[in-house]
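MODEL INPUT / OUTPUT PAIR
PAIR INDEX: 1
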Amino acid sequence: MRSYLLLPILALLAACAPQKPQFPMPDRSATAQQPARTRTISSDPTPSRTNTSSRPAPSTSVGAAPTAPEQANSEWAVSSIKGKFLDIDTSAVRIYLSITTTQPNGQPMSVETFRERFIVNYVMYPDYNNRERLGYGNIPITPESIQKIDDRLMLTFTLNRPKGATNAILLTEISETGTGKKSLNDLPLRFKPTKLTDQYAVFDATGRLPQLRNFVQAKDTFMIRDVPGTKKNLYVYRYKHEFDPALPPMTATQRPAPRTLNIDTTMVVSTNEPIRLPGEGLYYFVADTTDQFGLGLMATDARYPKMTRPERLVKPLLYMSTGTEIAELNNTKEAKKALDRYWLSLMAGNEEVAKQAIRAYYNRVEDANQLFTTYKEGWKTDKGMIFIILGSPDRVQRSRDREVWVYNRRNNLSEVNFTFNRKQNQFVEDHYELVRYSEYQPIWYPIVEAWRTGAIRE
């Protein structure tokens, strides 16, 4: 499905006795010096995690929506839906749905195939806990309403504001006509904008297609635009900060108190005009310098969400490596050769198994970057960590501020749940933190060990 630059295996090495894998705990005792120019963040992008003693309980929701692509199957199916709304004015909103599909040959569908095989319906509720219908109907699938972007489809439609409603939950149902199978997406709507992102989003260079993601490649030209095409100046802050990767799901370690981030560059841009950023980093767009919430956007290298540079390929191995292994990989002057030795030593010198394990692991890293990038790379997020090690959840239960990922069978347990709580964040709206439990340890380590022995080679 994807093409990857895989590490060439240079030599077969003898097997080494594996250590018990665990995350190396980074030194967090040092405090950053106060820079000449800083911007105080209203909420720490990497806040403290708390640990409790009880097992996470699933939440109930209007509908469950997969947040990660499923494996290719022999059916015509919708495997994920990502939604975004933009206020047109106080009377209507524009809805954008990015839809990932598969068909029997394993490839994404064309617009024509989707139109032939699927119907789309919607219903609006006042809230997740209120089933009173504010509105419902069918979304016509026409050449004007749906377009193909890379390997995804973009469905666009407009909804009028229900009388008297300030907020709503939009539940979209995409049904395959042959089997009746349904895929659901729930999207909170605000009909009176309270944030910049209620009105503005990142579009391609033509201003026609929203990107529905929190990153652009630094070389790309894009627009930040609203539906009416309003001209507006935005103040931009650029941060060149290396954010920490996720902590283990069973740790009780807490992050330090909120901190400031160094401002590397400031600039002013205009909405609805082409923009090209000066380089990689985290960019923060605000309409006013006193605003508490704006639009955060990562500018990445030209290969992202793929990772190909040896020094960058080392970093995601944190989730399946010992502290000693990571230290050796980080301290080497020949990262490429060190990576070859690392994988071959884990796979008892079996070159073919090593290649398959490399492909499987970095496929997941790329998918995590594509799906879960926020103010930092997707693989560094809590969701990205769980996705890389365990894969796509079997189902997802969502409420307004919570997602529960349910895995039906892992490590001989009938069901394993991972609960993610939405946390307020000034850069992005989809910042979630995992609720950590010590009871995850007997689940986590055997799956990590399966990676280390080459048992996972999807």
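PAIR INDEX: 2
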Amino acid sequence: MAAIKYTAPLFALLLAACGGDESNTDIVVAPPSTSSAISQLLLAQYSSSEVNLNNVLQNEILHLDSVQTISTANGKQEASIDRYDTISIKDKAFREEQFNFDSKNLQWQNIPLNNNEALYLVDGKWEKLGQAKVTAKGNDIILDYGNDIQYLISGTSKDISNLAVMSVNLTKQNTQTRPEYALFKPPAPVFPAGSQAYYLGHSPLKTTYLSYFGNNTTFKSIDEWTTFYSSNSKNTVAQNSICPFQFDLTRKMVIFSNNPNQSVKCMAKEQPYEIRTVKQQQLLVMAEIQDDNSPAIGKEFYAIFNGSLLEGSVQEPFELPNNTKPASNSARLEVGFNKIAINHLFKYGGLPATAQLK
């Protein structure tokens, strides 16, 4: 799956296209009592039926991340459809591809996957993952990348024929104030007959450390880095961001400050951090900023390895909430569509006829 920052949970748009005979898609329903925690969450949150993902992915190609939101030079946000990823299972291996729409040649181009550059903490060092092997676990699937890196994926499905595009969403934020509304606002036609939506949940089986970004650094250790950026110095981390920060080494707190050069005011004040040693690697771990600008509640970390300052997320196994504990922060929920539905989005999302998937 794509290597990206997690929120709580992360709501990304996943577009799923059916292969083969789309008019005769078999939905395999599992009793709720046999469902995983993620499936229970999906079934409770969305009106849908659980599917056997191993069967689905062996017979269909799922298309991911079609709608992109960008900020223009004047700060206005606009939505467009210019990319999709594909996932499938072939010979018990998990396969991924990515396509960008070439506006000059009016066709999709296969490009390298960005998440191939992501690094995972494995056996005391940071490494890229190879291709995952797939095993079925009831109606779910497990992606096994080796070295104790495994992810569980659950899924449900729903017939969305004759539903308006803007009524099929996950975050409930696709309102008239969202950029996506401009693409599919009425009188955009409803989804045609045979349109199918999929709701997927994705979580690691064990606590996993994923680095999604790195910069060259001369610091040799986290202790050296935090000392340089301590609250007793004039140096600040991420000085170009909305919330640059320093470290109070005595109280083990991250101290945020407002950037006067940013149009948005920093609302974060301070939050605790901890130093962890995991598999011989030293990590500074802190909760992501929680304010009106960034409501994420996942944990992020910093580490130094081979001359790079790595930044990433701490991915924890998802658990359903109970009376004493909230749900964990690492369930990634996504909504998807079959080929009939995604072609509908391409057509009314402003793409030419040549963008239609065959």
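PAIR 2 NOTE: Residues 242 and 341 are 38 Å apart (CA to CA).
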